[in-house]
Amino acid sequence: MLAVPGIEDNFFTLTLFFQNLANALANGAVYALMALTVVMIYKTTGHLNFAQGEMAMFTTFIVFVLAVEQGLNVWLAIGVVVIAAMIVGAAFERFLIQPLENRSVLAPVILTLGLFFVLNGGAATIWGTQPKQPIPAPFPGALADKIDVITDRSPNFFITYKALGVWITVAVLVILLNLLLKRTKLGLAYRAVAANAESALIVGIPVKRMLMLGWALAAGIGAIAGAIIAQYRNVLDFNFMGAVLLFGFAAATLGGFDSIMGAVVGGLLVGIVETFAPALFTFVGNELALVMVLLVILIVLYFRPQGLFGSKRVERV
Amino acid sequence: MSVNGGTAMLQLSGLNAAYGPVQVLRGLALHVDEGAVVVLLGANGAGKTTTIRAICQMVDTKGSALLDGVELVGKRPEQMAGLGIAHVPQGRGTFPELTVEENLEVGAYVRKDRSAIKDDIERWYTLFPRLAERRTQLAGSLSGGEQQMLAVARALMSRPRLLLLDEPSLGLAPLIIRDLFAKFDELNNVEGVTMFVVEQNANLALDIADRAYVLEAGRVVLTGSAVDLRADDAVRQAYLGF
Predict the structure, then answer these.
(1) Percent of chain B scoring above 70 in pLDDT
(2) Is A69 an interface residue toward B (CB < 8 Å)?
């Protein structure tokens, strides 16, 4: 094989390439979910919720309590927590964000930063700073739980059930979200508020309730994202969602802050760059993965400031 | 006249409205009878748009605004559509990121009769054929005239009893304006929609109006039939330009 300086030779080994791709897409799918939570709130309110990751971290701990400490079925625990998260998310919007809405543009953003520290510190106080044993698998996660695709080469190429589980979960969620937004009256009302809040009031849409819906959906999607990434990465501690949200923000920026399609594509692209850059270049370590992601975003935004799928906002007079 | 009889569909009295410390409407009183087209004239800054926003409770309002005897002051803006008021706001009233058809569907948000909603969409497509051609396009891609037609059709989708039009001719080419006002006339005569119109283009507005008010610094300074006002020298000089 031709040796090129700075390029990892075995990157081009077919099975290794596929293995990297499978891993990248699973990570990317979770980034897509976090990007979706960012988008669902941004579309209607124009705010970024910096506490999104910590909300997901907190709900994952509650799944842990229900499933590990109380012995509840893990899927049931996730279901209960998702519904609870949606209610609490809507309540956050109603009782914390809405009172600040007319004060200043920055006030709600600062409040979400405050929420970040409350949840982060709260989780550390309640559950300690040491990593917990991860939540019991929603998907089979043992070493043998995999589908062998290519076995006659070294290394083999296999797809783990938990990667498959992540893909299917994210795909189903995205489809459901799309059906909700595109096929229901509730979804139409939500999109109307996103497009023109004043006209939405005029046609009789309770706009404030749609803002609560955005928060509820974001909190629910975040709760699912937290639970599946905790298993996929085998990690649960009070800081584990920080980096995930950062990649989620990156994905939303890449895709365009107001586009659902953009969040999904952006998430997958971020996952691919994060995995492939260290795998392809010898001089890029795993620690530099985020920098490489940001570099790609910088290049994309230079040519498309609104992101890959974002709509160009025209200033309203 | 129904000023004291209380039979007017819309009756404003002692209406005050302010944006923060800036008082815009000062004890405004006017009425709109059922089935009528009433025009509100006035210079820039007289409070025309604020009058419409006050009716819809989109600005801090004191005083009284009765719709069929129901007090609007104190209600929330999103309740107006359900009460039978449709509002075509100044400029962009459409949802740019929704398709033309979705704009019309969302206009019927307060209605529950699904099949009748479908029929109404087709009905307004017949009145505005340009919209039918562009039904799957995003509203943001329409021309100014088409957007205004869409905003009007969307307002009609709620089957309003009272249609509030805020500067419908703003920014449109003269031919399109004439077409649009012909549609308004048709809507009033054929469908019996009551209209309250704020309009800079006084000539056109008076053509389709039954009565008119002239607003100055938040108060009504002149009122009368469209025919009388057209003959009034002061009105002609100030608003008709001849």
Answers:
(1) 96
(2) no
Output the pLDDT for position B234.
78
Q: Average pLDDT for residues B152-175, to the nearest whole number?
A: 92
pLDDT for B238 equals 76
Q: What is the pLDDT of residue A192?
A: 96
DSSP assignment string, chain A:
----TTB-GGGG-HHHHHHHHHHHHHHHHHHHHHHHHHHHHHHHH----TTHHHHHHHHHHHHHIIIIIS---HHHHHHHHHHHHHHHHHHHIIIIIGGGTTT-SHHHHHHHHHHHHHHHHHHHHHH-SSPPPPPPPSS--STT-EEEEE-SSSS-EEEEHHHHHHHHHHHHHHHHHHHHHHHSHHHHHHHHHHH-HHHHHHTT--HHHHHHHHHHHHHHHHHHHHHHHHHHHT--STTTTHHHHHHHHHHHHHH-TT-HHHHHHHHHHHHHHHHHHHHHBTT--GGGHHHHHHHHHHHHHHH-TT-SSPPPPPPP-
Between A25-39, B67-81, B216-230, the lowest mean confidence (pLDDT) is in B216-230
**A197, closest residue in chain B (CA to CA):** B95
Of the candidates B240, B169, B109, the residue with the CA atom closest to the CA atom of residue A191: B109
B110 Cβ under 8 Å from any chain A Cβ? yes
- Partner-chain contact A195 B97, CB within 8 Å: yes
Q: Is B154 on the interface with A (CB under 8 A)?
A: yes
Size of interface A-B (CB pairs under 8 A): 72
pLDDT tens figures, B55-87: 999 999 999 999 999 999 999 999 999 999 999
Q: Say what the ipTM of the complex is.
A: 0.91
Higher pLDDT, A162 or A171: A171
Gap between the Cα atoms of A188 and B18, Å rounded: 33
Q: Alpha-carbon distance B16 to B64, whole Å?
A: 9
Exposure string of A69-85, with b = 16+ CB inside 10 Å and e = fewer, is: eeebebeebbeebbeeb
- Confidence bin at A194 (pLDDT 50/70/90): very high
Q: What is the pLDDT of residue B1?
A: 41
CB-facing half-sphere around the CA of A86: CA atoms within 13 A? 13
What's the confidence (pLDDT) of residue B15? 95
- Residue A75, both tokens: 């899927």
> Which residues of chain B neighbour A191 with C-beta distances below 8 Å?
95, 97-98, 102
Question: Which positions in chain A touch B106 (Cβ < 8 Å)?
Answer: 188-189, 192, 200, 203, 205
Strand ordering across the sheet containing B194-198: B85-88, B162-166, B194-198, B37-42, B211-216, B219-225
pLDDT over 70 (residue B18): yes
